[in-house]
Write a structure and sequence with these properties.
It contains 10 helices and 13 strands. The protein is an alpha/beta fold and about 325 residues long. α1 packs antiparallel against α2, α2 runs antiparallel to α3 and α6 packs parallel to α7.
Length: about 325
């Protein structure tokens, strides 16, 4: 049986052949395997791609072991992984220090951040990982943290409100797009093969030294209002609590709580789920047996009344308390 591969597959295959890094080759392979039709004619080809994928992942893992482990390989921790990106001297390190217990080097001269600096931002009863990256310049595909740009849950693009923030934001968004990492400006458009769409929030730092309202309006106009903009001052602590709320909003997760029938809910250890998750998704997150044996659930929070019986496909919202019956 012929494979009958679509044109998009061949385009991804060409990108695979031209890829210069392991992460680029893995990304292209993932696209090829997703596009490939499922029938007997593609069984051999699929097996070959699976073999190549395994080899590439082994090479990537081997390259990250021992004394040569890359400092740009950041283990995901907490409820979400969020990156601080932007031009030099915009104040990313100051924001990291203001939001977390991390103590990065902070100076008036540029390029003080040469490797990822990591901190955990407390938000209510969860922690969100904040990763401060070195300044973004040039071809993002050649940056040692390119893979992080493709896989993180969201990006915080930091610009200096006292400079030309609109120009800085447009430049970074364009550089990301050239590396097939697309901002919410592309949300309603068709992504090219191998492209990823990232969540993003724009932080205008140093708003104490500028007309924050004017700077924010200028940036919003430059990006057609497609990305949220929040002016802050890391130095003076201005609007940092609002920033935490916006970070939680932009990663699009929810906290839900569980209770055992006849007992009070555990309100200290939430389950963190993607926004829009169902009761069944929660059951799978707890244990496979819960999902297989789930009959129904009772809900406190988003139901019409407390303890309302809901089915597996009921969509959960922030703060729901769920009692699973199996």
């Amino acid at each position: 049986m012929p494979a009958n591969l679509p044109p998009q597959y061949h385009k991804a295959e060409e990108e695979f052949k031209n890829a210069k890094t392991i992460s680029e080759r893995i990304a292209a392979l993932e696209v090829m395997m997703a596009i490939m039709p499922h029938h007997k004619g593609t069984d051999k080809l699929r097996a070959d791609l699976n073999r190549k994928m395994s080899q590439l992942k082994e090479r990537a893992e081997a390259g990250g072991k021992g004394r040569h482990t890359s400092v740009f390989s950041v283990e995901r921790q907490g409820a979400a992984q969020v990156l601080l990106i932007g031009p030099a001297n915009a104040g990313r390190s100051s924001i990291l220090a203001a939001l977390t217990a991390a103590r990065p080097l902070i100076a008036d001269y540029p390029y003080t951040t040469t490797q990822p600096e990591i901190g955990m931002m407390p938000y209510a009863d969860i922690q969100i990982q904040i990763v401060d990256l070195p300044p973004m310049e040039g071809d993002v595909r050649k940056l040692p943290f390119y893979n992080l740009l493709r896989t993180a849950d969201a990006m915080l693009l930091v610009a200096d409100a006292s400079g030309d923030p609109a120009a800085d934001v447009k430049l970074i968004v364009e550089e990301l797009a050239a590396g097939k990492v697309f901002s919410p400006l592309m949300k309603d458009r068709k992504l090219p093969i191998g492209g990823v769409l990232t969540k993003m929030l724009i932080i205008l730092n140093k708003c104490d030294a500028a007309d924050a309202g004017l700077a924010a309006d200028t940036v919003r106009e430059a990006i057609d209002g497609a990305i949220g903009v929040i002016p802050v001052s890391a130095m003076h602590g201005t609007a940092l609590e609002d920033l935490k709320e916006e970070i939680y909003r932009v990663v699009e997760i929810i906290r839900v709580y569980t209770k055992v029938p006849g007992s009070k809910p555990d309100l200290h250890a939430p389950f963190v789920l993607p926004a829009g998750s169902s009761v069944m998704y929660l059951a799978r997150s707890i244990h496979r047996d819960f999902a297989e044996g789930l009959r129904f659930a009772r809900i406190w929070g988003s139901g019409k009344f407390d303890g309302q019986t809901v089915q597996r496909d009921h969509v959960l919202v922030e703060g729901d308390v769920i009692e699973l019956h199996i």
